[in-house]
Each structure stands twice: as structure tokens, then as C-alpha cells.
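User: I'm putting together notes for a lab meeting next week and I want to include a structural view of one of the chains we've been expressing. I don't have a solved structure, so I'd like a prediction I can at least talk through. The sequence is below, exactly as it appears in our construct file.
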Amino acid sequence: MQARPGHRGLHWWDRLERGFIGALGLLALALAAHRILTRYVATDWAVTWSDEVLVYGLIGATFVAGSLLVEEDSHVRADLVLRLLPPAAVRAVEVLNCTLAIVFCALLAWFGFEVARDAWRLNERSLTPLAFPMWLYYASLPLGAALMTLRYLRRLARWLWHYDAATMAPRSGHES
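Assistant: Thanks for the context. Below is the predicted structure for the 176-residue chain, given as C-alpha cells.
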């Protein structure tokens, strides 16, 4: 993998996020396998909370994965127009995109934090026998949004101060 401009020294961040996402994915896989086995083979070992924790884990992993998608420029977007623009226009559009994304993600993080904090203060719990603390579930949104905000700030800095038209040209996603 070729180093991206402005990406020096932060590979630990990528690895930490990938590890967290992988751990949640493995937890979900293990819970799904357990659920299947206990449904058809060992019904005495069934637990009522596995589906709930599986969903919470997958949603948490999804929100954190958004940060990696920002870093790798892999979010779904209409980049056909970008590939048709001259480099100076691409840069302007990307700076605008990053700025709007920073505002949106920061607001999402702030209001998501408010929701998670209210759930913590109210000791809100799921209505299942597990009584899962809902603030943990709600916290995945502000965590993912805050991580995306930081990644968009880094991305904006690259577009503003480390711009290189040759390495930062829009890609089709089919390059190897």
C-alpha cells in the first residue's frame, strides 16, 4: 500500500479502528453461530440476549468503520463529475466537501453525545432480560461521528496544504 500524503505516523489509528471493528465482527459472528447451534442442536444452551448484543455490536462497528472509509476515500459518492473536472476545481470541491462533512459530523457527534449522556443519566436500559445499558449503544453514533470529524479535518488539511494533483486525483475505485 502506498503512503498517502499527510498520513505519516498515524497507522496505529487505522490499526486500532480495524482491531475494534474486527473484534465486534468476531463477537457478532460468534453470537450468530451460537444462536444457530442453540436453535437447532443444543436448545438447552440458548440465551435470550444474543440477538440484541449482535445488533449492538454490528451497529457499533458500522459507525466506527465510517472513519476508515473517510481516511481511505471509500465513502459512497458521485465522483463521476469530479473525474471530469480540472485539478483546481476538484480541489475546490473537495475542500467544500470536507468542510460540510466536518460541520455535519461534528453536529452529529455533539447531538449523539447528548442522547447518550441523557440515556446514562436516566439509566435507560433495554426492555429485554439483559437490560443492556442503552448509553453504550447510543455512544457508538457520537464515537463514529467524532472519529469521522477528525479524519475529515486531516483530509481537509491534506487538500489545503499538502495538495498533489498527481496523487490526489479522483479514482474510479477500480485501480489496483
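A couple of points you could mention at the meeting. The first helix runs from residue 11 to 40. The CA atoms of residues 27 and 48 lie 16 Å apart.

User: Perfect, that's what I needed.
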